[in-house]
């Protein structure tokens, strides 16, 4: 039978600094905007919650190379690089989740935020996840959602990977799948996907 679980969409870190031309660009990162906009439209039309997470770093944090971390300076609070991609859908019904406000890396949208509490408050049982990047913030968000007890669908067409090491993105997808996430290969409309679940 089709799933009746209440769903939410989590759009992970589609910010200027992670798109081409940004401080830590993900190759073809801007290509996630169109499929994510379509999904956001579908979820909002159904009245299901939509969340956009963002890195929201202070100017000085141990997350950055200059202070002993891994990454160049990026997504500093209030800077153009921290803004969402200009073509990414904006809507007052979309909730913003800010992460990485301190010295922790906080790759996951659940790390140091109240996202799990917000989802539970709304009765959400299943989350769909896409965004940037497959092998870092998307993967960690998916894994944390599973640890929190949510059903998870990871939308492969709506994410891109950093691939610091060749194949990191594919390995991240396999790690998500092994942990219990369903990997959606395409940007399946809700109704068609539910029919597939029903075996029709």
Low confidence ranges:
190-200
User: How many alpha or pi helices?
Assistant: 5
* Morphology: globular
N-to-C series of helices and strands: EHEEHEHEHEH
Q: How much beta, percentage-wise?
A: 15-25%
What is the residue-averaged pLDDT?
91
Number of strands: 6
What is Rg? Answer: 16 Å
Structural class: alpha/beta
Compute the separation of the termini in Å: 9 Å
Helix content: 25-40%
Major sheet strand order: 3-2-1-4-5-6
Biggest sheet descriptor? 6 strands, parallel
Your description of this structure?
Helix 3 (134-147) links the parallel strand 4 and strand 5. With 200 residues, the protein is of the alpha/beta class. It has 5 helices and 6 strands; from the N terminus they run E-H-E-E-H-E-H-E-H-E-H. Mean pLDDT is 91; it is low at 190-200. The protein is globular.
Brief summary of the model shown:
This protein is of the alpha/beta class and 200 residues long.
Name some characteristics of this structure.
alpha/beta, six-stranded parallel beta sheet, 6 strands, 18% strand
Could you outline the blueprint of secondary structure elements for this entry?
Layout: E1 7-12, H1 33-46, E2 50-55, E3 95-99, H2 115-121, E4 126-132, H3 134-147, E5 151-160, H4 168-179, E6 182-184, H5 190-197
Parallel strand pairs: 1-2, 1-4, 2-3, 4-5, 5-6
């Amino acid at each position: 039978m089709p799933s009746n679980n209440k769903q939410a969409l989590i759009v992970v870190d589609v910010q200027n600094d992670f798109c081409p031309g940004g401080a830590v660009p993900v190759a073809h990162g801007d290509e996630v905007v169109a499929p994510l906009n379509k999904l956001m439209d579908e979820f909002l039309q159904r009245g299901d919650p939509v969340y956009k997470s963002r890195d929201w770093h202070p100017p000085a944090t141990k997350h950055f190379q200059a202070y002993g971390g891994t990454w160049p300076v990026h997504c500093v609070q209030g800077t153009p690089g921290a803004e969402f991609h200009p073509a990414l859908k904006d809507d007052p019904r979309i909730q913003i989740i800010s992460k990485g406000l301190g010295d922790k890396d906080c790759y996951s949208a659940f790390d140091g935020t109240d996202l799990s509490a917000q989802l539970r408050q709304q009765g959400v049982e299943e989350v769909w996840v896409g965004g940037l990047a497959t092998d870092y913030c998307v993967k960690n968000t998916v894994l944390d959602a599973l640890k929190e007890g949510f059903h998870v669908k990871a939308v492969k067409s709506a994410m891109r990977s950093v691939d610091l090491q060749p194949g990191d993105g594919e390995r991240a997808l396999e790690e998500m799948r092994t942990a219990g996430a369903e990997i959606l290969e395409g940007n399946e409309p809700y109704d068609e996907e539910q029919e597939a679940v029903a075996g029709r």
